[in-house]
Structures are given as C-alpha cells and as structure tokens.
UniProtKB/TrEMBL annotation:
Alphabetized InterPro entries for the sequence: RNase_H-like, RNase_H-like_dom_plant, RNaseH-like_sf, RNaseH_domain, RNaseH_sf
Pfam families per the UniProt record, alphabetical: RVT_3 (PF13456)
SUPFAM superfamilies, alphabetized: Ribonuclease H-like
Descriptive protein name: RNase H type-1 domain-containing protein
Ranges of residues in domain RNase H type-1: 2-82
Segment forming the signal sequence: none
An example Gene Ontology molecular-function term: RNA-DNA hybrid ribonuclease activity
Amino acid sequence: LEAEFLEILDSLVLLQRSSFDRVLIQTDNLEVVKIIQESQLASANSVLVRRILQLLKLIGYWRIRHVPREENRVADSLAKMAFGKKEDIRVFEEVPKELSHLLEFDIDKNAFDLY
C-alpha cells in the first residue's frame, strides 16, 4: 500500500505545481480508495494519507475511484510505457497510436468520468 500512496502523493505534488484545480485519481487498489475516502471523515493514521488529503484540499475538486485494471486499460498501458523511464513526468500531447483503440474502450466504460 505504501508504494501506491507514494505514487499518488508524487503525482499530486506535480499537479499542484502545474496549477490544476481538478483531479481524478484512479487505482485498481480498492483498499487505497477506501482508506483515502474514510480518512476524510476521520483522522488518518498514515502520514502519507494525511499529506495526500492536504494536497487534495489545496487542489479543490477531486475524486478517487476504484477502476479494475481490465476496465482502465489506457492507464495500465501508460503506466507500463512510463515504467523504468528516468523522467519525472511524461506528457503526451496526443494519444499514442497504440493506445487509441484502448481509449475508445475505456471511454465506453466511463473510465474518465469526473462527475
């Protein structure tokens, strides 16, 4: 779980520096989703979770949701493409060609629904 929380925290730090005011966190780890959601109502035991919640408050509008890996194939593929890269962040201006068919599938499954 700690690795998943660290990934979320690192991503939120990058988003905050970029002045984003909305964020959708998707993870295939249901336990992570439950911990973050429940920690909004009660005091978080984990320093990482408390820091994540602090950053989310600064961002403003946010949502976290559990999406099984098989229903969010674009995120899974992007994570695999970025794995092992030395850059801190990788920005895609356009959808990589090898992911366009997966994007259509994920859109049909409402994988990117913010509301």
